[in-house]
Amino acid sequence: MKKGMMQLQTIIYVIFAVLILMAGMFSVQSYLTNLAIDMEYELDNIDQGILGKRIIGSNKCFIELHEIESVSDEKYSIPDYDQGNLIKSKISSNIDSCLEGFPKEDYQIKFYTLNPKSEFQSWGSAECEPDMELLVRFNDDLGVVEVCSDE
Amino acid sequence: MSKKGISGDMVLQIGLLGIAAFTTLMSVNLFYDSVEVAVYGDPYLATRTMTSYIDFAEASPVPMKIFHEIPQDLAGNPGYGTVLYNPKTCEFKVNKYSQDYMSKIILDNAAGEITLEELLTVAAISKFNNKFKQSAYSQAAKAAGITGNRALEEAFEAKSAREAETQATKEARKRAKKRALKATQKAEVAAARAESRVATAKAAREAADKAAREAPSEGTEKAAKQAAKRQSRAEAAEKAAQKATQKATQKAEQAAALKAKSRLMSEAAERAAKRPNLLSRFGSGIKRSVIRSAKQWQTTYKILGKITQKARSRIVGEGGERVTKSIIRGAANQQAMEKVNLGCKALPFPGNAICFGSTAGWFLLIYGMETWMTYLPIMHFIERSQDATEAINKEWASASCISKPEKVVITKPNCGSEAVLDYPDLDVSGSILTEWIDYIPFAKTLVEAAFAMPFSKLTPEVKTYEGIESDEEVCVDYHNYLLSSEVQGKFAGLDGEYINPKNVVGRIPFGACLLTGLSGAWFGFSQWGVGCTSMYGIFYLSNWIDPEMGHKTKLSLIAISSVFGGPIGGAALSAAFVYNPQDSTTFFPYISQSAGMIDTDNYYYMENPYLISMSKEYRDGEYVTEISKEL
After folding, report:
1. Do A43 and B48 touch (CB under 8 A)?
2. Over the Cα atoms of chain A, what is R_g?
3. I need a surface site. Which of B73, B142, B282, B416 has the fewest CB within 10 A?
């Protein structure tokens, strides 16, 4: 080989290797960063969770909030509630204010007593299959609240 | 091993190392870009999570607290620099960048270019100035009998730094002292009132006791009853007075705490005042390392520092500098053209027509030059700033709660903010090239104003929001004033949507100058066109440099534009000038369309939060929703 040709070959080899590598890396980067990642977070489940919490355990809705007072010398009281024990009279009077913020046309909530199963209150106009069923109590009687959403 | 072989291997090894380094850097970059959402989290999901936490807390019948940790990137920065909360709609809005950083991005993007020619000029001037300064120091040192230039130079610098620090300390102490004094006075008044109530109650009780003692001896049942009644009243009054005393003591303690807080604030203000204002919040780590390495290279530090300072001035004042040059060119051309026109008018037909045609050609040449050197850089400046604003606006995500909390309390209220101008220190003293500027009235002020850039700084007043309560007196984060709705203003009586500044600042007035120039040449007033382009520069510069333009100045500018710019150009320039905001702190937010990006009246701001808590608390007999930036 002619004197100096080896270095030239190596330099050309390195230059082309770097160029090809750069082109490859940029292509991969460009492809990956432009990928639209289709993520479904099922965020309506969060809304249903909030709805369920309001139904079974919110003092602004259908349960009764009590206070337990101490009997010792030092006076104090702590709030207490029986989650899932709904007051029937509160359902009819508080239902609109309780479910405020949820669009009526997207939800349907039905309240049933069991033994025998009979519906006594309904809210919302959506036509859908129940997504969530909540087992509740009306004092000593059992009941069910069916929640459906067409969101 | 032959010499030839070693050389080939070395080249190969360097190449391979280069490839390895490049691959590593690219992989990190690729990884970071690809997993950005995974690292930071989806901004919409973050807002939905926060609103859901509020909803859960609201639905709870008992007090509860939920913590929300903001995801961090590899460098430990919070994923969302800006978290906004609107109490009226219970809406959370997040953006990747903090507000000050948004403003910086827009400014930097607008004025972030510097040409090689500008750098070389700055380097040359700095080198000259530096040599001149050194020679001045040598002479001064000789006169003072001190040897060693550096010692004297450092002494001068230390002196100016001490002066700046003393000034900042004085101001901060004054503010803190005022607040503490006010709180102490209030507490003292409350304590005095409480003491007087205790004394009155005590006297009443003593009187009642005496009456009770005397009543049975008199033997009347009625009197005994009355005495007992008075006694129980006196007891109640005494208890109330004691309660008031306790309250007053608490207030006094709070005042003491405030005094301590004020001291802390004053210290913080001192520290803030010592920091360089625009760069203080960004890249301080980088700056420190630059300074460290610069200290190691003592000889080059001064020159590098000066070049950086001048380069920054050049960058920020690019628009101002170009316009100043344009005005000088325009004034000279206008005078010359006026004289040529008079000559043309004296010529018989067709000589006068040819002469006017030539002036039109001349005007077009000048107009082309101004387009290239003034109009296009200004438009480029506006376009780049608007691009940055658009890019930032794409990063917003928001979500609203389902429930609407009745009472929202925050633990860390926002501070107020205001716009100020960052005037670069041109440091013209001691330079032959620039010392002439000191002899021309207002010249230095004007040049510094042309290079000045607006930025936002905090004011210690607590900012209040409708629907949010806070009993804290020490504020933390503050909205960037340049992005606020306050700088949006009203444009010629129009609210909200406005014509793109590219048209009102650039195309319409500069286009009107072309029309003026050509029509002026037809009627023998071709100087109007040149006058118009000069006035365009003056109007632009006035908007840029004047922090608070007076009514008289505005009227004067409009009157001058009618004389120099002719009827069409003058009217168009004046109309555009009246429509645009006319002071330097609102002009940049306006042209970059970043004014009003943040609804500062309605959104509470948490800057760079790491941990936010949302809770339902029981306070003073009612439930409240509390939002707190914990970290």
Report:
1. yes
2. 32
3. B142
